[in-house]
Design a protein that fits this description.
With 524 residues, this protein is an alpha/beta fold. Strands 7, 17, 18, 19, 20, 21, 22, 23 and 24 form a nine-stranded mixed β-sheet that branches. The protein has a seven-stranded mixed β-sheet with strand order 10-9-8-11-12-13-14, covered by helices on one side. A six-stranded mixed β-sheet has the order 1-5-6-4-3-2, with no helix packed on it. The two termini are 37 Å apart.
Amino acid sequence: MKNDLVTCRCRDYTIDGFGIAEYEGLVLFVKGLLLNEKAVVKIISHKKNLAYAIVDKILESSPYRTEPACPIAYKCGSCDLQHMNYEGQLLFKKKLVENTFRQAHLDVKIAEVTGAETPWRYRDKIQIPVRDHLFGYYRRYSNDIVEQADCLLHSEKENEIVAFLKEKLLAGGLDKQVRHLVLKEGYYSREVMVCFVTKKDIAEELGAITKELVREYPEVVSVLENIHPQENNVILAAGEKLLAGKDYITDRIGELDFRISLHSFYQINVRQTEKLYAKVRELADLKGTENVLDLYCGIGTIGLSLARNAGSLTGIEIVPEAIKNAKQNAELNGIKNASFYCSDAKENLCDYLKNKDLVIVDPPRKGLSVEVTNALLQSDVKRIIYVSCNPATLVRDLSILKERYSFDTAYPFDLFPQTTHIETVVLLSKVEKSTKKIHVDFSLEDLDLSGLKDGATYEEIKAYVKENYGFHVSNLNIAQTKEKYGIKERENYNLAKKNNIKQPRCTEEKEEAILDAFKHFNMV
């Protein structure tokens, strides 16, 4: 079956933008195939009931097909959708959100996706891996770096600076000590921050390059070194060393100015962020007296955009540098009714929720923790605005919150053109509990239980965790978590192959992700 050529027609998409087709009962996931297209495809990987394939020849082309603007679009792992024109990308993203809500049995209207005026040159932050004398992005499903002199998602200035640094680091042999180059650029201010993420402290060796950098590019107002000796997938270690200028840049969203430090989260597409925040303000519909809580507040961008129309604003964020920036940003914009606290969102949340009229949640891709959703359900908060970067965890959380909150519309925003990522905004309103009791007679024999999930394969669990949390878990991790939560497993699955061999235990982070998958598949 592998390397066979077969003819098929695309009937849907995966969340990764692969076309879904069928051939003689086999489900095909085809990279680069668009909806309704007919094509000859080459099978590159085959399992029992499914296979992965690539397009060999298009027989009937979609009107949304276009030639990728980037010459390495099919090699680099950064862009998934360059073979679709932008109209097609917006249709794909709306369908992605629609499918996610439908599969969760949530009856919600999906608004048209708010697209970008230009789908190129929008990234205000870039992180460039450096390895084996190469500077670029990783090939999909690989640790191989693909170089590109002119990435079309970067600004032209960012590409210029990366090329300059590459030349200097290679010439001095310092590239072997650099793990990443991190650049942040203010869209309106045009200020640039450059950070060398290094394996050891090479600040002295970077001195000459730093001086030449700020002389050649006066817009570079911040140069930092982040020393990160550990071999892991985390890009930044704690702390940084200032090499030149200041330890932050400034930029503007709407009418507000913001200080942005190295570790602080700041949306990478300011032009689209302004549209998203306008929708948040519209849904908030503040009258000037409301007490607002902004969870996962970052440097305060969403909350401060609401503060002038609110009675008070409280922001919670776990990153100390971000809280420092948030307080500075409130002062910078003359906002007196805002308070910010460095805390985990799930700790002491019940206290923060007291007397709040509106809560803004903008969590990372893994969504809300169980502690946060439980606290919201037990609170008296009348309205929640959920800003999500992951439709899968959004609908998971909404499926829990619907116990006490209603919602009818989801508003998608495309902050990441050429990729499969999408931001979604939903307003939730408290549904008052009824005290009226009714008596219902029913029999389990009358219920249709055929649609209930009773479990999932290891591959499905691993795929769910990878999609929603961004990391891999092993079969052993899953088996250990099953054992811990009393889920029946075949005998000796998670035992060592030899006696007296101690096996590594599943980390807390991985256990939390696997438990979330168990809940998703109704296993616990």
